[in-house]
Predict the 3D structure of the following.
Amino acid sequence: MGLLTGFTAGLLLITLSELGDKTFFIAAILAMRHPRRWVFAGAATALFAMTVLSVLLGQVAAAFPQRYVQGVAAALFIGFGLKLLYDALKMSGAKGLMGEQADAQNAVEQKEKNVILWSARAVVVEAFTLTFIGEWGDRTQLATITLAAANNPYGVLIGATLGHAICAAIAVICGKLIAGRISERLLTGVGGALFLVFGAITLLEMP
């Protein structure tokens, strides 16, 4: 697939998957305690590093015959999509993102409980560490690996990086304000539908 397809897929899937995710709330909580620019720097750097790593892993998978790679990618996308739609159907329409927010709060509290003196470097390192660990093995990492295996890796890298940066910026600027206004059911449903769309596109473009 072309550069534009990889870029679009990376941007849309990552933006929708990250908005309201655990790492989103980690950045939002840290931004309420420390200077926003340092929180953003640490979180964005961690997300970029994770994206590069995921794209590289996707390229390792792409070394296998393309037909099989795209078949597995399509199956994963469709599986992710169906799972998300099923989860959305089980959710209450009024349910927010309290679970993700609570997990993020606990992660931050554990990290900061013994810290007395803060510096710019300490804030950047904390934001980087918590974000990188929170993102490891997450759905967005698996989605990036799958996208990079079946699409143009440079397009996926640019699109996913931009998607992560947008979500990190939203989190540090106004994460607290919008947290209670995000519908987990809506985000999950839209994300599931998007995974199904890209699964279908991958199937159609199989050699």
Remarks:
- The radius of gyration is 17 Å.
